[in-house]
Design brief:
The chain is built from 20 helices and 14 strands. By secondary structure, the chain is of the alpha/beta class. The chain starts with a helix and ends in a 20-residue tail after the last helix. The relative contact order is 0.06.
């Protein structure tokens, strides 16, 4: 840190030192009061002459003789107050055996003078007496002052640790941000791949932090807030850390949920404390992850109009609005739910720049795989371009998981490098889940699953404008998948035609139709297929306007959350008549696809049976083998082959 950033630390140290000195003085005052009033013994100081008179009158019960003093217990004369305290108020302090004083007894103390006949007189009066060496003033100081003060400081230190800035009651209003100092994030743009557009957009922030005069000269101002928007796992947090690493400035990192507590006002206090710390460390970056945890639109909670979360949001809006952009503090935030954020957060002057961090394309996935494979030893036959092509829709976190799972599989098998087979198995794990080798199906169930998956594969291989089949398997995976047909697109697609959606519907219905044709019976295995098929048909009618009867209109329900200031009493945006027409049209689309699939599989029943037998024998059929079967290059009675390593016992 520079000298400017160290000034607040010196002030903090001075405050702590002053705070400790005042506590020390207070401790001495408290101990003086305790020693003077609370621990003071009820002792009557008498002159030596009065002591001698009491001795002659046999009023001395017992005493202790020291080189300087004589103290003990005496009987109070009749003309004195008789109702003195009857409890021991310090006898142990005088060296006497602790005892309960009887009525009319009291402690005394006198200064000893040179009296050679004292012992004889005590013996003559039959008085119990003892001697005591004078241990000096330091023992009184040690036992009556130092030890109590040390105990007091121990209690104070324990309480102070409980209330320090790192935790406890005194820190409840302090920010919980983790601060990474210059260069400690260890992340740069070299570690970010697959989101080149977002990186280019965010580099402007780095240039401003490095050279703010470049923008101030032309009168421009850097945006106060940068909002990173994108699906989970696309690298929003990583991108924010890379900005801090490139700019070599302090990086405050915290989550939106760190502000909200059960105590009202705590979140607002933490927001104020965060911006105060950021101003002291400027130039710096403040990164708030999961902004939607505290930035939801106000009014979404119908039960509490002024709850703690809304007060926290209001304080954030005020701080960002009054923040000086010239001090060099950049506020960055990330969310995967921008639609529920309060509109006041997104207006110019707050989070006025939104950077979309989207799913990577095939080139981006290849670059991400290169980043995550730096420390992984790959076999020479591994082509990351092939792996990128087989992982459409994967984000950075998914690809990192694929590479890590492949390395673990290779290590478990005792291999010296990660092979293409390990990466393929890793992709299957991420897509469909772990192999359930312990889930053994009976012969009948396994046959149903084989024909079901064969139906999907035959339909997908027979239609155009569908993703080609990469692998068909009847090995149970995940929670409920008894088999799967894996289709991989040949390229990244962003639009779909009506024909492509209808073909996708037919592929989903292929499994159920194959069961009906083969066994004259249907099972529950098509539950998920029917759900997805119905969802596609409903979207075609209500969202995409692909129904001739209903027309090119959108009847989709508002996808914004409830309690957003909208009228949620009537969720339908159309009449009951239109709703009935929509239901009929959805049914007609699905039934039409069902009839087409039934005709197709009836015509290719021999190939369906052949593929099912191959699955029962091998349990896994690759896309090349399916293509050969559909092209007539495989006989209807396939030759027996050695079982795959992935096979399970039945």
């Amino acid at each position: 840190m520079n000298a400017k950033n160290q000034k607040p630390d010196n002030k903090t140290r001075q405050k702590k030192l002053s705070f400790s000195i005042w506590y020390l003085l207070l401790a001495f005052v408290v101990m003086y009061i305790i020693q003077s009033f609370l621990v003071q013994e009820d002792v009557k100081k008498i002159p030596y002459s009065e002591f001698k008179q009491l001795l002659r009158d046999a009023k001395i019960k017992e005493c202790t003789v020291t080189p300087d003093k004589i103290f003990g217990v005496f009987f109070v004369p009749d003309d004195s107050i008789q109702d003195e305290a009857e409890t021991d108020k310090g006898g142990g302090l005088f060296g006497l055996q602790e005892q309960k004083l009887a009525k009319g007894e009291r402690y005394f103390e006198t200064i000893r003078v040179d009296d050679p006949d004292l012992v004889k007189e005590l013996q003559a009066q039959n008085i119990k007496f003892s001697g005591k060496r004078d241990d000096g003033w330091w023992q009184g100081l040690l036992f009556y002052w130092i030890f109590p003060i040390l105990i007091l400081f121990a209690i104070w230190g324990f309480a102070f640790r409980r209330m320090n800035p790192q935790g406890g009651l005194m820190s409840i209003g302090r920010s919980k941000a983790k601060v990474y100092v210059q260069g400690k994030t260890k992340v740069t743009f070299r570690d970010v791949a697959g989101i080149d557009e977002a990186v280019e957009e965010i580099k402007e922030v780095v240039e401003y932090l490095k050279d703010p005069n470049k923008f101030k000269t032309l009168g421009g101002q850097i945006p106060k807030g940068v909002l990173l928007v994108g699906p989970p796992g696309t690298g929003k947090t990583l991108l924010a850390k890379a900005v801090a690493g490139e700019a070599s400035v302090p990086f405050f990192s915290l989550s939106g949920s760190d502000f909200v507590e059960m105590f009202v006002g705590v979140g607002a206090a933490r927001v104020r404390d965060l911006f105060q710390q950021a101003a002291q460390q400027a130039p710096c970056i403040v990164f708030i992850d999961e902004l939607d945890a505290m930035g939801k639109a106000r009014g979404m909670n119908p039960l509490a109009g002024h709850d703690e979360r809304e007060q926290t949001l209001n304080q954030l809006l005020v701080e960002m609005d009054g923040f000086d952009p010239n001090i060099g503090v950049i506020i960055m935030a990330a969310t995967n739910r921008p639609e529920i954020l309060d509109l006041a957060l997104l207006r110019p002057g707050r989070f006025d720049r939104q950077v979309v961090v989207d799913r990577p394309d095939i080139n981006g996935r290849e670059e991400i795989l290169k980043v995550h494979s730096r420390n992984v030893k790959l076999a020479p036959d591994v082509d990351l371009r092939v792996i990128a092509a087989r992982t459409p829709g994967f984000v950075g976190a998914d690809l990192a998981n694929v590479m890590n799972e492949a390395a673990l599989l290779a290590a478990r098998s005792g291999k010296k490098a990660v092979t293409l087979e390990d990466l393929e198995e890793s992709i299957d794990r991420v897509v469909a889940g772990l192999e359930k080798k312990s889930r053994v199906l009976n012969k009948k169930e396994k046959e149903i699953v084989a024909y079901h998956e064969a139906g999907h594969a035959i339909v997908a291989g027979s239609l155009t404008d569908v993703d080609p089949v990469h692998r068909v398997s009847i090995i149970p995976r995940g929670v409920a998948a008894l088999g799967y047909t894996l289709q991989l697109p040949t390229e990244d697609r962003y639009l779909m035609t009506r024909t492509e959606l209808q073909n996708r519907l037919q592929v989903l219905l292929g499994g159920r139709v194959a069961e009906e044709i083969t066994f004259k019976e249907i099972s529950t295995g098509a539950q998920n297929d029917l759900e997805r098929a119905t969802a596609i048909a409903r979207s075609m009618v209500t969202e995409y306007g692909m129904s001739e009867k209903v027309g090119p209109l959108s009847y989709a329900k508002d996808k914004r959350p409830m309690f957003l200031g909208l009228d949620s009493g009537n969720s339908n945006v159309h009449s009951e008549k239109i709703a009935a027409e929509i239901d009929l049209e959805i049914r007609q689309i699905v039934e039409s696809a069902y009839k087409n699939v039934k005709s197709l599989l009836q015509a290719r029943k021999d190939k369906l049976k052949t593929l099912a037998k191959m699955l029962l024998e091998k349990e896994v059929v690759e896309g090349e083998e399916l293509a050969a079967l559909l092209d007539g290059k495989v006989d209807s009675k396939p030759k027996t082959k050695k079982k795959s390593k992935k096979s399970i016992s039945t």
